[in-house]
């Protein structure tokens, strides 16, 4: 991909005037260059050049459309490639509404799509909240972080499409247990208790948990049941036994 950018540069290494004069094109070049991988010097050069040019363009006030200037400032803060899709969708819908040549049909479809996907995510979050309350770990382990919504938002950053609800569900559960276990190691357990807890998890046997403190028993049994439930659902729906890869 990096080779494409050489077509827009002079032999001396700088970008052609036709590219520089197109502010929208420079913004697109800036965004596209952020798919850079290590060692792609052409993309690194494009990021450096377009960042410098776009900052100069909005600071000089050279008759740039205010909406375009707003898009440039937004992109310079964090490139599109690094942002969460659904948050960006809302931002772009609001920004598009201010454009002079708004397509009413496209605008209404965008809002409808956003609201439908948002409704799916809200339903997913309600299901996760019910699971979290019924699990009871947050109330029993009051030293641990209760970050259900943050974990769910993290899962949305990975699997935003409505049809991937199961993926969001499992990612949310996994991240909640990561936080709880992290707090057990950092805040709660003594060295001896943590060594026992590690051994029980590695053995993956409920008979071994009798020697654990109460809070660690709660955590391990919740982890054990949730992991086995995920493995069972996969075996039932897909015919794949994933338990050996989870434990």
UniProtKB/TrEMBL annotation:
Coiled coil (residue ranges): none
Superkingdom of origin: Eukaryota
Domain Terpene synthase metal-binding: 134-246
Keywords: Magnesium, Metal-binding
A GO MF term: magnesium ion binding
GO biological processes: terpenoid biosynthetic process
A Pfam family annotated for this UniProt entry: Terpene_synth
Alphabetical list of InterPro entries matching this protein: Isoprenoid_synthase_dom_sf, Terpene_synth_N, Terpene_synth_N_sf, Terpene_synthase-like, Terpene_synthase_metal-bd, Terpenoid_cyclase/PrenylTrfase
Domain Terpene synthase N-terminal intervals: 2-76
Residues making up the signal peptide according to the UniProt record: none
The protein's required cofactors: Mg(2+)
Name this protein carries in UniProt: Terpene synthase metal-binding domain-containing protein
Annotated source species: Papaver somniferum
């Amino acid at each position: 991909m990096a080779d494409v950018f050489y077509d827009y540069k002079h032999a001396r290494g700088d970008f052609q005037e036709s590219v520089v004069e197109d502010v929208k094109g420079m913004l697109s070049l800036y965004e596209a260059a952020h798919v850079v991988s290590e060692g792609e010097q052409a993309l690194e050069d494009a990021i450096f050049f377009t960042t410098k040019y776009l900052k100069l363009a909005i600071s000089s006030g050279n008759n740039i459309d205010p909406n375009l200037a707003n898009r440039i400032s937004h992109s310079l803060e964090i490139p599109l490639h690094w942002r969460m899709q659904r948050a960006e969708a809302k931002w772009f819908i609001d920004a598009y509404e201010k454009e002079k040549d708004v397509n009413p049909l496209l605008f209404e479809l965008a809002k409808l799509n956003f609201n439908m996907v948002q409704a799916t995510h809200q339903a997913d979050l309600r299901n996760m909240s019910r699971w979290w309350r019924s699990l009871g770990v947050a109330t029993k382990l009051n030293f641990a972080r209760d970050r259900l919504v943050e974990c769910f938002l993290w899962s949305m950053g990975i699997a935003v499409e409505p049809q991937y609800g199961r993926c969001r569900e499992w990612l949310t559960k996994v991240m909640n247990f990561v936080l709880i276990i992290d707090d057990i190691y950092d805040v709660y357990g003594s060295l001896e208790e943590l060594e026992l807890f590690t051994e029980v998890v590695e053995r993956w046997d409920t008979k071994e948990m009798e020697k654990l403190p109460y809070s660690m028993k709660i955590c391990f049994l919740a982890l054990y049941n949730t992991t086995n439930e995920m493995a069972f659902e996969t075996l039932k729906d897909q015919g794949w036994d994933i338990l050996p890869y989870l434990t």
